[in-house]
Structure formats: structure tokens, C-alpha cells
Amino acid sequence: MSNHDPNQDLNLEKLIPAIFWKVGIQKYSDELKETWEKFKKSDNYEEDKILKIINNLADIYKEVLKIQFDIKNENSGNYDNYDDVAKLYCSLLDILTSEKIQSLPYLSASEDRFKTAISKALEKKSPQLPPLSLSDKSDKTEYILESESTSNPITPPWQYHPVPDQEKEGKPHDEFYSKSHQSPPEGLKLIGARVRGKMHKHQGTNCDDWFEFDTVDKWTIIAVSDGAGSKKFSRIGAKISCQAAVKSLKKSLESFSLCEPPQTALEKDFDRDDKWMFKGDKARELQQHLYTALNDAYQKVEEKANKLKNYPSYNKSIGGKKLELDIKDLSATLLLAIHTKIHVNNSTSYDFVLTCQVGDGMLAAISHKYTLKLLGKPDIGEHGGQTDFLTSSSKLEHSNLVQKTFPFIGNLKALMIMTDGVSDDYFPNDPCMLDLYGDLILNRVINIPNVDAEEIEKELQKTRLKTPDDVIDNHKKFQDELERILDEESKEPKKVSICSIANYAKQLGKDIKVVLESPGLLNAGLLQNQMCQECKEMKSEEKLKIWLDSYYRRGSFDDRTLVVLYREEH
Questions:
Q1: Where is this region: Disordered (predicted)?
Q2: Is 534 inside any structural domain?
Q3: Can you say whether the dihedral through the CA atoms of 99, 103, 107, 113 is positive or negative?
């Protein structure tokens, strides 16, 4: 008999994400599919094991439903990750209420079984339904379903709840926020917006995102942060870290210059040595300015945490034992980007960008030739789907930061910095950041030059939609009518029309990059009706806010924040 243990052949680190994919809580990838197929063919695969997985997952959903209906039991008090599982529960609701349910017959059948089970449970007694249980947290851990737009999706059963009064220590963030910079670099526009996520609206919890930007001399400075939802005061950490980092960089860059070298010379300066440091002296100095800003942000967050310890409302009591507020209660990610325009002998010019990040989210640059370069490398936490934060152990060590620092040297079309509430919706980020940029154009957040009708018709002749009338006749295949989740008294536009560049390109039979490179095809996709009637008079940053709050992705619940530095051609 062999002493070999077949369980030793199991690579759980690879297998668990593959199981998540089968369940529907992780995005599809060829690697996950291949891992699952190999497991099915291996000696380790047994149907009993799969049934155990199913039963365990069913128990989790059962626990969430008990908590959702305020049914107390011995386990609920120890359920530390309720909000993580609540997201999975809401993912299931999102799938079941999607119009694409017919493409998933096994889920369609499940819907009938759920209805039958509920009906039978209510036959004997019809108790009054309890009020929605509002959680005081929404964990940063995020399990994402496959991101996809759907034509005319049925609105899931999400509700709007304001942040309760008892959660207003530290002043809650506004429901929405958008702004532009009044004096951005020459030839560029700078806008940003953040919105409260669908899950936060449903649970009545705070928006945890924040962003800041400013300019000093010839430099533009951008900071974006996402507070850890499981930490009640993380929004404070997000705000403070952004403000501190921008202030630090303004001080460092006020008198800093790259001496306007030729592009090839600057590229050599930003080559890496064997320790991942940049080779040029100026490049190293600039690199260190970013790291100083990150450390300054940490120091300010630590100072704030120590100050808040003195206020009883910021501390908590569990089982009669007082727990003092800790710096980790202010945990947040932090993404930084700096930009300048470099002129060479008054004859040529190019853009320079340098970025660094701690935690998840993404930074991406698109060149004038629509070449995409990712400028971010998200930190992944101890468990899949989690992330690290500015307050996480060792995240500010030099050896970690040098691996998260990226330059862009060339002619810039757009620089986009975002929290994972946006970046996860455009996964894989390469090439889907091009989709994001295209969506901003089709929804008129970013304006493009008009072209004449002859040019539009000429370009359309190369596609499946031969005329502008064909585009209009097929607009429902790439434009969704959506209803926003808003306070009943809100004066915000309630119903909006959202276009998808991916679906538009599909109707044209063209690659997204080809569509972006064609002013004629882009103009053809700019339908006469904007996102909303009010949008006609809105500024770009206000339209960005509405778009962020409206676009649909299955399994997308989080706060959304996006800052865009872009060249708007006329």
C-alpha cells in the first residue's frame, strides 16, 4: 500500500479561487477554468466533497438570512464577517433579478424554489416583517461577480437608507461629491467624483472613499483613498491621508524641476537598477518625494487616531470591556499620482507621470495613440479578495513601495486614478481601462471634437451598422435605461441612459481600440439624448458623478471614486 497522501497534491491556493468562479463570486479567467478542469480529472475529485462545499455555502447563506430577519441564534454573535457574506447574498439577489436570468436556467429554477419555500413558510403564520437591520460596517473584503453590462437590467431590490444619526461621529461624507480644478496644466482638464456605493445605501452606512487634487508650479498632484469598510471610522483615515499626502507633495514639488531633458534621456533616468530604484539622481529624488508623502499621510492618520481616543463616542465596548480606538480603525488605501509637462528647447513637449499606491484600486495612463499602460499594482491581502492598507504592517517599507512605483513618459491622452469600486468593474484592467475611457466619451463626460456627417457615414460603412439610422435603430443594444438609488426627496436626476463602449463596439463589429481611434465612429455613438435631460447644462465633473452613481455591473456594490486628468481636444 502506498503511503502517499493524495491531499498533498491539492493546491488550495489555486483551487479555492476556481471554486469561487464555479459558485459565481469570482470573475472568469482561462486560468481558473483550467484549474477547475484539472481538479475534476484528478484523483482528489469526489462528488461528496463538492456536496460538502455546497452544504457549507448553504449554511453561510442561511446564517445571513437569519441575521437579515433579526433571528437571534448562538452563532450570530460571533459572526465577525457578516458583511462579507451579506455581499455574497446580495450578489445572489442581483443574479436572480437580472433580465439575463433566462441564460441561467438552473438559477431560474432556483428562483421558483425560493418562492415556494417562502410561501410554505408563511402559510401557517404571517408575522410582521422586521425592519431592515442596518449594519455599522461594510467590510472592504470584496468578492466580485463577472462584470458585465446588461441591456435594460431589472433594478435589483436595493433600498435607500441614509446614514443613521448614531453613526455620525466624525461627520459622514456627503452622498456625492465632484469637483474640477480651475487651473489645470496647459491643454488638460482635471475632474473627480465619488459616490456612495449601492451596498452602503442599502445598509445605511457611510461612504468610505475620498479624493484630493491640487497644483503647484507646473505639477499636478492627485490622491485617492478607499477606507476599509469593516472599520467604522475608516472614512476619516481616507480623508486625512489624501489631504496629508497632497500637502506633503505640494511642499516637495514647489521648487522641484526635472530640467526639461529630452524624452530619451528621461526614460534612461527612470530605468531600474537591481534594487528596483530608478537610476537617475532626479528620478530617485522624485521617487523619494512620493514615499515621504505616504509616510506623512500615515503620521497624520496616527495623530488623528491618538486624538480620537480621548472621545468616548469613538471607543467601543464589547462584553462590558472597553476597547480603545486603534489606528487600524482608520485603515484606508492610498493611491498617488503626480504629473508635469516637459518642454524641450521650446520645440517639443511630452507628459511625465509618476505613481505609487498602497492597497487596491488602479492607476492607468492612455497615450495619444490609445496605448494603455497600467501604473498600479494592487496589494493583495492574506486572503483572496482582500487588500492591504496604509496602516498595514510593512506596507510603507521601501522594499514594498519601489515595486508599486511606475512612470509614464510620453504624450498623454488621459490619466485615470480610481478606487476598486471602479477598477473591479473594468477587469481585467488591461485592456478594460480603454473601455472605461470610452464609456466616459460615449456618456459625454469627456467631450470630443465634432466631425461632419460625411466623415461619420464614411467610417460607418466599414462596420456592421452602415448608417447613422442603423446606429439609432440599434441603440438599445448599447444604451441602458437605469433608475438610480436615491433619497425620495433628492433633486438628482432619477432615471438615466447609460451607454457602453463595449456593447457599441460589438454592434459595430469592431475592436474597442479601433472605435476610440475613429472620431467618426465615436461621434456616431454620441446619441442625441444625453444621460439625462439636466446633463445638457452640466459641467463634466457633475456628469462624472451621475455616471459613477448610475452605470450597472453585476455584483458591483462598492463606493466608486474616479479622478481623470485628460486632454480635451477641440
A1: 147-184
A2: no
A3: positive
**Distance of alpha carbon 259 from alpha carbon 28, whole angstroms:** 47
Is 150 part of a structural domain of the chain? no
Q: Is 284 left (phi over 0), alpha (psi -120 to 50) or beta?
A: alpha
Lowest-confidence range among 26-40, 109-123, 331-345? 109-123
* pLDDT interval class at 172 (50, 70, 90): confident
Q: Would you say 359 and 142 are in contact if contact means Cβ atoms under 8 Å apart?
A: no
Last residue of a domain, one of 408, 437, 466: 437
Does the structure show a pLDDT above 60 at 205? yes
Alpha-carbon torsion (180, 184, 189, 194), positive or negative: negative
Report how far residue 184's alpha carbon sits from residue 182's, in angstroms, rounded to the nearest whole number: 6
Three cell numbers, residue 532: 439625462
CA angle 488, 490, 491 (to 5 degrees): 130
> What is the tally of structural domains in the chain?
2
Give residues with Cβ within 8 angstroms of 361, minimum separation 6. Answer: 224, 226, 333, 335, 376, 378, 417, 418, 419, 420, 423
Cis omega (within 30 of 0) for bond into 431 = yes
Name the average pLDDT for the chain.
80
Do the beta carbons of residue 75 and residue 85 sit within 8 Å?
Answer: no
Q: Are 562 and 221 in contact (CB under 8 A)?
A: no
Q: Which three cell numbers stand for residue 250?
A: 505640494
- Strand order across the beta sheet in which 334-344 lies: 209-216, 219-226, 334-344, 348-358, 405-410
Does any domain span residue 523? no
Whether residue 356 sits in one domain with residue 250: yes
Task: Report the alpha-carbon distance of residue 282 to residue 224 in Å, rounded.
Answer: 25
Beta-ladder partners of 460: none
List the domain range (segments joined by +) for residue 213.
Answer: 165-437
CB 160 within 8 A of CB 198: no
Distant-in-sequence, close-in-space partners of 411: CB < 8 Å, separation ≥ 6: 350, 351, 367, 368, 369
- Cα–Cα dist 442/523, whole Å: 8
Q: What pLDDT, on a 0 to 100 scale, did the predictor assign at position 547? A: 98
Q: What are phi and psi of 484, to 5 degrees?
A: -75, 155
Residue 521: its H or E element: helix 519-525
Res. 336: pLDDT tops 60:
yes
